[in-house]
Amino acid sequence: MAPRPHAKRRKPVPTILQIEQTECGVACLAMILASYGMHIGLERLREMAGVSRDGTRASNLLKAARRVGLTAKGFRKEPEQLHEVPWPAILHWNFNHFVVLEGLNASFAYLNDPATGRRKIPLDELRQAFTGVVIACEPGADFEPSGAQPSVLSALAERLAGTRALLPQIIIASGLLVLPGVALPVLSRVFVDDILTTRQTDWIIPFTVLLATITLAQAALVLLQQMLLARLEVRLAFLPATKMLWHMLRLPMSFYAQRHPGELANRLDANEKLAGLLSGQFATSIFNLLSMIVYAGVMLLLDPVLAVAIILLQCIYFLTLSVSNRLQSRNARLQAAQSGKLIAATVGAIRAIETIKASATEREAFQRWAGHQARLLSLRSSQGRVEALIGIVPGLLSALSAAAVLGLGGLRVMDGAISLGTLIAFQALAVSFYTPIASLVQLAGQIQMVKADIDRADDLMRAPAAHFEAEDATPASFELRAEDLVFGYSPLDPPFVNGFSLTLRPSARVALVGGSGSGKSTVGRLLAGLFTPWSGTISIGGIGLNELDPARRAAICGYVDQEIFLFEGTVEDNLSLWDPGVSDRRLIRALSDAAVLDDVIMRKGQLLSQVNEGGTNFSGGQRQRLEIARVLAAEPSIVILDEATSALDPATEKRIDDNLRARGCTTIIIAHRLSTIRDCDEIIVMKDGRIVERGDHETLMAAAGEYAALIAEGAGHG
């Protein structure tokens, strides 16, 4: 790309990191909006851009940008034509990501990446990663700046709101700690000038006792401060984590559909990190800052000339550390991103080891892993060089400060401007003054680093919890009725399920079949109350599903997912989910009806036998049957089986089916194997989210339509 005459100036935008991998596009839009003075949270932009479990499209970003008053246009450009687009602009990157282009010149492109932050890349890298899709946004006639830029300090202050009783105690203890820090150097001056040089031997012992008393008082205050800070840390870690977990448990399934479980767990862990920062380095650094102001004031009173020299040296130290911290912060972000890729490559290779060995691609898997590791080691090596250089600075400036105090101070003593005791006191104060500087600079870097943790925690807490207008009522009957259901995963995309209706009398059996992506599993989740339809109604015995108490709804309608979840604990815990109301009799009956009782009885401890994380000490079929037993233990009247017997042999599958019939359960079968649904009261065939056929087996086979084709293929994947 040749340099252009009259090149445009680079236009930096505020960095806003994405919280989820699927929201890189809206994070880029948020950066551009912030650069024009409009600050909107990512959760609102997610709704406006219709971010789903698959992310968002450039067309949806254009719609969202226009809704907030921007003039947004999409272009297809070659890398050499990017100078024609107004900056900042959003670029489609590597076919799976969005970044903000802040500017470019003859050699480099300046990007703001929502995954890693601001970075400068060679134009060759731009040519390789840029897909050609550009979104240019500028303020339109209706655009109005609004909102306030989020403040890290205000967010941290909010987390201290529930600890007001402790804060005054910590402030008083920290304030009192300044007194010994000033008193000891000042008293050392008195000792040298008024006692030692004048040979006042009668004052030696009393003065020594006074210094020892002050030292002991200082130690007691430090102990009190640390105990109070430890209590503060416990409170800051416990209260927000408890509140966050309770809020998470009440969030709708649509929230979890767009987020990774491991990442959500990390948000809970972030509370401990924030608690440690607030009660540890943050609180200590605030105290150190106040102490430094007091020490600087005392030094200026003792000798302004010497004080100014020390303060100037420490300003140089502060600026040096600030620059190095910015370099290390950028490197740390890149390391975090690269480390995530290395972990993903490692875990992916282990999980897919059977496939790798079957296809003899061990070398390719190793090369992919080694490439990620090499890039991570390169970043660590670069950081090591910076750290080695920075490691010299504290010792160097400390020596220079000591030399300045001794040299300049010695001259001042010889000139008679200050006394020898003042010089000794000055040395102690100078050490106390510059010791906290490194921690203050590190604090500034840490505050920026925990901003991502705060954003993730706030994003979760801002998500609206599911609201139920619960009635303490039991339906008169267990007739399940769904009328004209419409639902999708993104409000800007066509609905995934459209016009689904069903009436299911008690003890009836219905099957949902269809090809992959036909919407049958989504219908199952809607009928179980896991998702809320955009329109249409679902009722049990005439009572709307959202009007039933969630616990009562779950007791009436049991849902067995194709994804098996077993946690580390006993069989009893996995089946009862710690509900004391579930008796051993119910558990045994549930295990028997799920055709897994014999397998459990044969194990040591029986109901108290251990289950490994993920149920790894059970076979695939046993895990599926334990999942079915968990639902049956609640004795539901309606059971939804979403491919819940795919790992079972036909004989075991028939045995479970017979047991469900004996229970009199209304059963909805989302089928994988069509051989088990032939005698259902109704078979519903779905395609592209719509019902295309319905009827019993004989009627549908006679119609020679979609169902007959599925039977002929011998599969109905969903």
What does the largest sheet look like?
A: 6 strands, antiparallel
Order of adjacent strands in the largest pleated sheet: 1-6-2-3-4-5
- CATH structural fold name of the largest domain: Rossmann fold
Give the name of the CATH superfamily of the largest domain.
P-loop containing nucleotide triphosphate hydrolases
Query: Please, how many domains?
Result: 3
Please give the oligomerization state of what you see: single chain
Give the tags.
3 domains, 718 residues, alpha+beta, Cathepsin B, Chain A, 6-stranded antiparallel beta sheet, 18 strands, 6-stranded mixed beta sheet, ABC transporter transmembrane region fold, single chain, elongated, Rossmann fold, 14% strand, 55% helix
What does this structure look like?
The protein has 718 residues and is α+β, with helices and mostly antiparallel strands. The strands form four sheets. A six-stranded antiparallel sheet has the order 1-6-2-3-4-5. The two termini are 48 Å apart.
Present the secondary structure layout:
Blueprint: H1 24-35, H2 42-49, H3 58-67, E1 70-76, E2 89-93, E3 97-104, E4 108-113, E5 117-122, H4 123-129, E6 130-139, H5 152-159, H6 166-196, H7 204-249, H8 253-257, H9 261-302, H10 304-351, H11 353-359, H12 362-414, H13 420-434, H14 437-449, H15 451-462, E7 480-487, E8 497-504, E9 509-514, H16 520-527, E10 535-540, E11 543-544, H17 550-556, E12 557-560, E13 569-570, H18 571-576, H19 584-593, H20 597-601, E14 610-611, H21 620-632, E15 638-642, H22 650-663, E16 666-670, E17 682-687, E18 690-695, H23 697-703, H24 706-713
Parallel strand pairs: 9-16, 9-17, 12-15, 15-16
Antiparallel strand pairs: 1-6, 2-3, 2-6, 3-4, 4-5, 7-8, 7-10, 10-11, 13-14, 17-18
Helix pairs in contact: 1-2, 6-7, 6-9, 6-13, 7-9, 9-10, 9-13, 9-14, 9-15, 10-12, 10-14, 12-13, 19-21
